[in-house]
Amino acid sequence: MVLPGIAAAVDALMRADGGRLLAHLVGAVRDFQLAEDSLQDALESALHHWSRNGLPRSPPAWVMQTARRKAIDRLRRSASFRAKSAEIAHLIDLDAHAADWTEPEPIADERLKLIFTCCQPAIDRKTAVALTLRSVCGLKTEEVADAFLDAEPAMAQRLVRARHKIAKAGITYEVPGPEHWPARLESVLAVLYLMFNEGYASSDARYIRADLCDEAIRLARLLIDLCPAEAEPEGLLALMLLHHARRAGRLGADGGFLPLDSQDRSLWDRAEIADGVRLLEHALRRGRPGPYQLQAAIVAIHAEAPSFIETDWREIVLIYDVLIERDNNSVYRLNRAVALSFAETAAAALPLLDPLEESLGGYQPFHAAKADLLARAGRQEEARQAYTQAITLAAAPAERDFLRVKRDLI
């Protein structure tokens, strides 16, 4: 019998240490799928063993040691036992000389190594990023699907196919040397960006997951140290810091979501904003403005504006024009339409949403933006319908409550 408190402890362990445990295990077993399977075996053992005997002194160390032993068992049971004898000997030696698993210093280096390792050029970029978010960063399949605006079943199938391809092709996971970093950098940046986004606007009841935001920021700082000649890591860190600086103003006293125009700007972290702007300016001086730098420039305009109404919306529209010219992204086009609605009028921006209906029909912010524009254009009944659609698609309770209030006020 598994005790509820033990199940909660195992879930908390995986959220806090799952990525780091997997990173160490991949390094030990040298096989990503074996590491994942062995870690899962160890967690199942933990549920039953800890329910009988209570929590060990160091739960991460217990899981790590058990996972190594589970890997040995799996290798011994495999059809290619003889071929795996060297791996078994290696694991037995590790097990004999490492009774305790302790966190390395700095711990973030190990996770960043695994992210670089998992962003395999042998796999298409979207799949590699999705697999890394799921396995290394600990996001659930539905959270990974949301990050790519995909349906959860489609993302689940993509991940299963990727694992089969990796196993069939014999793709090995080895930490790449510096000469291989440039080929993987774009994928690594995407992993950190999407990891931060899930923390910044989570689908769970907390809405803001500070643990994910903080970890993404820490890894981005390490990435800058690894790639000091690159501008986009600085742009990404600037983007994260400028968003993160507003966290104290994003929820009301009751825990309800507050949109940008309702936030108390005195709660924003001005030191963090200054740090983000400094990083952004340094990156832009390199003369290679990429998408993260340009997005950070937009957020910097918001962060430095004295008030919502004094925001330089025309400048934001112009930056989105540059982003769209480089990547005709539907979300960029949606955000540009919203910016244009404040630079000009909601009625002028509404026609820009029609071509986006097909690609963003399942995207909650599209319907929320459409509802707001319709309401501001005086088309109340259509606005209520759009808000209802947005409420249906909203995953986070804080967003659903906010959208219901907006709809009911029309």
Explain the overall architecture:
The structure is a single chain. With 410 residues, the protein is mainly alpha-helical. Among the domains are: 4-103; 105-170 and 186-199, Orthogonal Bundle (Arc Repressor Mutant, subunit A). Helices cover 69% and strands 0% of the residues. The chain is globular, with a radius of gyration of 23 Å. Mean pLDDT is 88; it is low at 103-108.
N-to-C SSE string, H for helix and E for strand: HHHHHHHHHHHHHHHHHHHH
Alpha-beta content class: mainly alpha
**Envelope shape:** globular
Secondary structure tally: strands: 0
Largest sheet at a glance? Answer: none
Measured by DSSP, the beta-strand proportion falls in under 5%
Average of pLDDT: 88
Gyration radius, in Å = 23 Å
- Helicity, in percent? 55-70%
Low-confidence stretches: 103-108
Treating each run of at least 4 consecutive H or I residues as one helix, how many helices? 20
Report, as a whole number of angstroms, the end-to-end distance: 52 Å
Map the helices and strands.
Layout lengths: L3 H26 L2 H22 L5 H19 L7 H13 L9 H12 L6 H11 L5 H7 L4 H18 L11 H20 L9 H17 L5 H13 L25 H15 L6 H14 L8 H14 L3 H14 L2 H4 L7 H4 L3 H13 L3 H14 L3 H12 L2
Helix pairs in contact: 1-2, 1-3, 1-5, 2-3, 3-4, 5-10, 6-8, 6-9, 7-8, 9-10, 9-11, 10-11, 11-12, 11-13, 12-13, 13-14, 14-15, 18-19, 19-20
